Amino acid sequence: MTGVVESSIGEVAGFKVAGVNCGLKKDGKLDFALVVSDRPCVAAGVFTTNLVKAAPVLVDMDVLASNGEAIRAVAVNTGCANACTGRKGIQDAHVTASWVGEALGVRQESVLVMSTGVIGTHLPMDKIRQGVRQASAALGDDWTAAATAIMTTDTRPKLASICVTTASGQTFTVAGISKGAGMIAPNMATMLGVIVTDAALPLASAQAALRSATEYSFNRIVVDGDMSTNDTVLLLANGASGVTLDNDDDLARFEAALRAVCTKLAQDIVRDGEGVTRFITVNVTGALDDAAAKQIGNTIATSPLVKTAFYGGDANWGRIIAAAGRAGVPLDPERTRLWIAAGETSDPGAFSLCLFDRGIAAEYSEAEATEIVTQPSVSLLLDCGLGDGQATIWTCDLSHDYVSINGHYRT
Amino acid sequence: MTGVVESSIGEVAGFKVAGVNCGLKKDGKLDFALVVSDRPCVAAGVFTTNLVKAAPVLVDMDVLASNGEAIRAVAVNTGCANACTGRKGIQDAHVTASWVGEALGVRQESVLVMSTGVIGTHLPMDKIRQGVRQASAALGDDWTAAATAIMTTDTRPKLASICVTTASGQTFTVAGISKGAGMIAPNMATMLGVIVTDAALPLASAQAALRSATEYSFNRIVVDGDMSTNDTVLLLANGASGVTLDNDDDLARFEAALRAVCTKLAQDIVRDGEGVTRFITVNVTGALDDAAAKQIGNTIATSPLVKTAFYGGDANWGRIIAAAGRAGVPLDPERTRLWIAAGETSDPGAFSLCLFDRGIAAEYSEAEATEIVTQPSVSLLLDCGLGDGQATIWTCDLSHDYVSINGHYRT
What we know:
The structure is a homodimer. Chain A is an alpha+beta fold. Chain A has helices at about 55-65, 85-105, 125-135, 145-150, 205-215, 250-270, 290-300, 305-310, 315-325, 365-375, 400-405; strands at about 15-20, 30-45, 70-75, 110-115, 160-165, 170-180, 190-195, 220, 230-235, 280-285, 335-340, 355, 360, 375-385, 390-395. The model of chain A is unreliable at about 185-190 (pLDDT under 50).
C-alpha cells in the first residue's frame, strides 16, 4: 500500500540533512546543502544527456560506477555550476568531496557532489570549505532548509515524501528534494534532485527504478526547452528502516512510490517555473506509439507561440495544431481532435470542450474557451486518431517575467 | 555579372502588381496583393513541411504540379490563414483563384493563392471578392504597395531586387517581396515570399534553383522556432526581358542572384522579427558535416536562454555552449572554441574576442564582451574542431515585446 504524497519531509531513518549559508548567495540566503546517511547506501543516478557535462556530473558518474553500493553523502552548492571549468573544475569537485569526507569521517569515494548556478566560473573554494564545515556541524531533520539551500531562481523549496507499507506490514519512506526553474527541457534541465529511502534494495533495481521514474516525471516537464550541463537526479537507499525490498510485490510498491515522489517534485518545478502564470497539462493520445506521443507533447509544450498564447489567456488552438504538425512524427489533421479543460487532469472524461475536430474548427463558445484557458491550471487532450500511443507532459506559459529573469541572470 | 541587391523594386518586364485594402485589416491598411505577368510563367514553389498544411498550400502544390509552365498570377490575402478550414477552405481557395482568373481574363489553373493570418477561420469571401476587383483594377509598378499588403505583424515591407548581366551582355532582373515576423522556424515560417524574374528558364532549373536558394536563406533564419501551416515561397519566370537562361554560365549567374535576393529577404524577416532588438549571426564551423553545423546553429538560435541573454546584453557564453551540447550531433567541448564580434559577419578574420577555448573560459575582458553584445548586430563563431562542416544561421533576441505581441495576437 502506498500512502499520499506529502509536500514535506519528516524523519527518514538513518538520514540527516543540513542547509546553510556560506556566502555563495548574497543576503545570507541558504546556499549549501548536505544529505548524509549514517550507513552505506546503494545509490543510482540519472544525468544530463548534454554533451557538455559539468565537472560534478562527470565526477559522480565515476563515483557511482566504482562505489555505487557504499555512498554516504551528497553535497550541493548553488551560485556556481562548475561547468566548462576544465581540469581545475574536476579537481575542485574532488576537493569538495574530500572535505566532506574529512568532516564526516567517511571516504572521499563515498561522497557525491552537485553544483548549480552560472556556467564557466570556478567554484569559490574558500566558501565551499566554509559550507562543508557549517553544514556538517548542523546535520538534523530540517529537510526544508536543505531544499531551500539548493534553490537558484526557484521561489520556494520543493519537497515530497510518502510512506509505504510492504505486503508483510512493515513501513518505509521515500522522500526527495529538487530544484530547477529555468533551462527545463524535455530531457531534464537545470534541475537537481536527491531522493532517499530507508528501504534496502539491490543496485540494479535502484538504477532501473530511478531511470523509469525519471522517464515519466523529470523527463516529462518543459519550462523553456533548454537542457543544462548539470542535470542530476540521485537516489540513495540506506536500509535503515529494516525493510529489504527482496520480492516483486514490494519492489513494485517502491517503484510506484518513487514515481509518485518524482512526479510531485517534477510538477513543482514547472509550477515554480521562471515567470510562470499558468500550469498546463498536455495529454496526447492516439499517436502512432508512446514515443511519437511524447514527441508531439514536447513540441507543443516547447512552442513559444503556444506558450505566449497561454500567457495571454488566448485559446489559440491553431498554434497547438501547427506545433503538433511539425513534431516530426506522423499526424493526420483529418483524424486529430483537441479538447481543453480547466484544472489538472489526464482523464479523458474530464474534457468536454472540443476546439478542433478532424481538420476543422469545432463549434464551441469562444467565451467558454476563454473562461477555461484563463484558469491557473489548464489541461489539453490531443487525440491523434492513429494508434495507441500516449504521453502526458507538464509545462507552463511564457511570460514577460521569464524574459526579465533570463535577460539579466548574471548581472 | 551580378549587381548589388537593392531594397526596392523598379520595373520588372512583363510583371504588374497591386496592393489594396479590402477590409481584411482594420484602419484601411493594405491587405490584399496581386502579382500578375502579361505572359505565362514557368513557376516553382517551396512549401511548409508542417503536416498541417493550409488550404492555399495544398491548392498551389496541385496547380504547380499540373500547370507549372503557364502561371499568370499570384493573389495574397492577409488577416486569415485559411488553415484548418476543411473542404470549405479548399473550395474558398479555388473560388479566389477563379475570381482572379475572371478579372484578368486568364484560366483559373494559372492562378496561385497565398494566405496568412489567424488559423482556423474561414476566408471572408465578400472581402476577398472586393480585393480581387480592386487589385486587378490597380495593377502597376508599385511593388512597395504589394509588399505592404502582405504584411501581418511585420512593421515594414520587405523588397529586394538585383540586375544581372549575362555572359553575352544582356540584362535581366530578379526581384522579390516577403513577409513574416513570428513563427519563424529553422525550416521556414509564417512567411510568404514571391520572387519574379523577367528571364526565361526551364521548369526543372527553376525548381532546383529555388530549392537551393531557400535552403541557404529562408531555411537559415530563426525567430522563435515555430513552423507555420502556410509557409510558401514562389518563383515566377516570364522571359519578358528576352533573356533565356540556356547555358550553365548564365544559369549560375541567375542562381547567385536568386540566392542573394532570398538572403536579403530572409535577413529582413529576422531584422523585423517580433520584438527584435538585436540581429544575431550564428556561424558554426568545424562540425562533423554541414548538416551537423546547421543543427548546432539552429539549436543555439532557437534557445530561449541564449535569446533572452542577448536581449539583456549579457555575453553568457555558457548558454551558447550548453545549447550546442544538446543539439543531438557530435560535439566535444574540449575541442570547441567560441568567438564574438560586433556587426554582421561570417568572416573568421573578423572575430578577435574568444570567450570559450577548448573546455574552459578564455581570458577576456567582460567589459569588452559586453560592449560587443550590446550592439544592434552581433556575430558568433563557434568552431567545433571536428571536421569541415559549416553553416550560418540568422536570428534575433527574445524580448518582452515578443511576449506581448504573441500573448494577445487574436484579441
